Structure formats: structure tokens, C-alpha cells
Amino acid sequence: MRRDGIVDRRVMSCLFWKQGAHRGNVIMRLQLRWLVLCIGVSLLTGCQQWPALGYRPVIYNPFPQLHQVAVLPFFNQSNEPTVDGFVVAEIYQSELQKIPGFKVMPVGVVEQYLLDNQLSLDSSTDFQELAQDLGVDVLVVGSITVYSPYNPPRLGLAIDWYAANASFHRIPAGYGLPWGSEEEEFIPDNLVWQAEFELAREQMKTQEPIVNQTAELPADSEMKVGFPKDWPDPKGFVPSPPLANRPPYRPYHGPLIEQVRLYDGSDRELISKLQAYYNWQQDTRTGGWRSYLERSEDFTRFCCYVHLTEMLAARGGVGQSELVFDTGDSR
Prior knowledge:
two-stranded antiparallel ribbon, six-stranded mixed β-sheet, Rossmann fold, single chain, globular
């Protein structure tokens, strides 16, 4: 539902980057009051710089059963041998810890556990079992797929979340959003596409032949048209109500959440996000937002923030955006 004309917490204000037209009366009144105040100050002081209005997203953990998280040192799958997967994982961990609802184990503690137990990680590692051994709900397994620190910088991240509890199944993009409600019209188009694509992938799996299962092909007249029993339904995007009895145990050993992204410092859309991100940070260092393209650690931190924010917002983890004022030069 809507509160004070502001879109419900699940709608994410157009993926928090765009200033939508549906901000509501409360935001409009604040903007008008701020405009009047600025005019008065400008007339009195001769101020030539007008503060800009922006909206900062409020991201939180939408899954209370996934509270404790451990982050493994990231694998380096890029062509740049100097990139440190431990450092990138630490940045990701610090950005994740800032999000309400998560308790994150330091990367150093995880690495020491691996050393103490003489554990090496490869494609055969049981990450669910490792999460259980670490005593966490989720284990984050990340890879750096692309890395270039030179302006314009580039960073590719492929990150999987594995649940310690094998009864937790995959959470697709679009899960937990207000489908079928009045707020559905505010869901951004790119997120609608993600949800439809996820659903289509699962539906097409039911139409694929089973490998190594041979059988005579039925005649065309015997081919039945209809939905199979395991046909994925769009209702799966809507969380189910509580059950009177515990559900049956159906183990799932794949990643709970998967997200692969490439962040290019020359991309206009990413630059607009960086400008907004810089304004929210209240960074007093010289150079403005452009300096984030020169400092690899700052750019990596920004990319980890975007990666986490998009991943959680696409699954219902966004609250009402906060109104912020920028008195600096973000252009």
C-alpha cells in the first residue's frame, strides 16, 4: 500500500536511480519549501549555487532467515594478475555490513578458518557444507571476471549466495515485489523484464528432453498440448502465506542467488549512478565524482554497492527513498 503518497517500500523508486514522477504530495511540499528557502537565501547573500534535490535508496535485508553471512576471498578470473581478491571481498563485506538486517563475518576470519583446517577451494567444494561449518546462514562466493584500474575503469563481478539450509531454494529477481497490486505499475521496466526472463527460463526447462532417456517418439496425433505438472507459475513471485504444518524437505544444492554484472566507467548510465552515489557520500575530498574513476578502491566500493543494491532491490529489499540535498558540484 502507499503511505503519504510515497510508493510502497518494495517498489524501489525506479531502481533508486531515476527521479520518478510519482513522489507524492509530501515530497512536493518539501521541494517547494526548500525552493522558497533557497530563493530567500540567494536574495540575502547573493548565493550563485543552487542545491540539487535527490533521492537516496533505503536498502535492507528482505530475508530474515538469511541473517548471518560469511564472504569468501574472491577468485580472480580476470586477465589482470595484480588484482587482490581478498581486498575486493573485504570491500564487498563492508558494503554488505552497512545494510540493515545482515551480520557479516569478516573475510579475514573466513580465510583463517580455511588455513587452520587446510581447506582449498575449487569447483568441487561443497559451499553449503562450508557455510554450515562456519555457522552462518549464507556463504558468498565471488569472482572477479574483468578488472582494469585505468580510466575509464572496468570491473566485472560474478557472485553467488549459497544457503547453509539445503531446503532454501533459488530466489529469482522479481520475488517479493508488489505483483498484482496497485503498485505494480511502478515496478521499473528493466526489473519486469528480469522477472519475465527468469520465469521463461524455468518454464522452458520443463520442455527440454531428459538426457539419456530414450523412447519412441509418439505420433503427431498423440502429442498432447498443455501445461506439465511442474510448470512454473508466476504466482511463485509472491511469497506464500504461513503453513500450518512444516513443508516436506526438498534439498536444493545450487546457489540461492546469482548475479553477474560488468561495470564500465565509460557507460553513461553508470556515470549517472556514480554522480548520485557521490552526492550521498558527502565526500569532502577534492576531485568530485570524477576522482572515483581514478581511485580503483573507490570505484570498486561503488561497484560493490551497486551490485548489492540492485540484487536486493530486485527481490523486495528496498524502503522509502530518502530526500537528500546536494550543495556541491556533481556535474
